Amino acid sequence: MESAFAIIAEPNRRAILSLLVRSHQSVGEIERRLRMPQPTVSKHLRVLRDAGFVESTVDAQRRVYCLKPEPFQEVDDWLDQFRRFWSDHVDALERHLDRLHPSTPTKETKEKTRRKR
Amino acid sequence: MESAFAIIAEPNRRAILSLLVRSHQSVGEIERRLRMPQPTVSKHLRVLRDAGFVESTVDAQRRVYCLKPEPFQEVDDWLDQFRRFWSDHVDALERHLDRLHPSTPTKETKEKTRRKR
DNA sequence: CACGTATATGCCTAATTGAGTATACTAGGG
DNA sequence: CCCTAGTATACTCAATTAGGCATATACGTG
Do B34 and B54 form a contact (C-beta atoms < 8 A)? Predict the structure, then answer.
């Protein structure tokens, strides 16, 4: 019953998730790409599976893991209450910067933070 | 040098952050509202402050804490790579549901997940 | 059915951390 | 000044957990 937050607190697990978002992978592929010992990979995958972040399908002796979306939602939902707060701050920063360099494009930042609800 | 992810893995800290997003609070106010022992509050605030989630200003013997936006960005940025993935899934689910109940409005879900980038 | 490959699990250890308790520090107010 | 309120910190303990290693299990192939 670990919260999704505790699960993604571990850097290796985040790495696995970031790898799986591109496409599904077998344990061996994850092991090689992330240069982790196999038991480490398997154990993290176990945690991720129990928490609903991934699921596995069997392919002969291989287990192929793929992402599941739900737990990410939980994190995103929690984060949501802070969005207005932090985009207000970014906007204020932008206005401040605009007064110093009226032509500097801050698009990058805007796209990332100011998503209208 | 704790990652923001490790910081928000702790439920009491998330509670403190959720409280502070409404408005700044003194240690005593946090203590009373969250019904936590004072040293616990102070310790978590210390962690949050070191990680840049909050900052404190002095008001006589009181310390008033308020939120800082930056660390939230870090989490949101990481989460970003999964957004397309999970909204694809939600969309698929919606299409599926639409075929069962062509008139059911799934607005709620749409607003939360399908934010165009 | 023996064997190799692919993956999971069990055990141990070291490190981290949150809670509890007591105590230290600081700023006013009488 | 002493006293109190408000907050921070030190210390101890218990629990959790990630890593390393060895081993077990499952599957496919000759």
Answer: no
